[in-house]
Amino acid sequence: MTHTQWKESDIKRMIYKGDKRSLNGRSKRLSFLLSLEHQESFPAPALAYEYYEEARLCWVVGAFVATIVMTQLSFEELFRSHYRAAKGVGGKLNCGKKVDDARCYELIEEAKNDEWISRKESELLNNIRKNIRNPYVHVKDIKVNKDGKQNVKEPNFFNQILKIQAPELIGSDIEEEAKETIYLLINLFPEISRRVGGI
Question: Residues 170-189: what's their mean pLDDT?
Answer without folding.
Answer: 90
